[in-house]
Amino acid sequence: MDLDTEAIKQRLTTLKSEHRDLDDVIAQLAASPSADQLQIQRLKKRKLAIKDIMARLESMLLPDIIA
How many domains, in total, are found in the chain? Predict the structure, then answer.
C-alpha cells in the first residue's frame, strides 16, 4: 500500500471517531430540557460535513473501474 492510501485510511478513522463523538454530544444536548437549539443545529451541520468528507475519502480508496 502506498503512503497516500494509508494517510486516507488514518484520516477516515479520525473522522469516524469525531462523527461518533458528535452524535453522542448531540444526543446529550437534545435530552437536556434547556438545550441550546442553535448549538445543536451547528453540531448537526458539522456532523453532516464530516459525513460528506468521509464519503469523498472512501470514494478515493475505491479503484477506478472502466465500464
Answer: 1
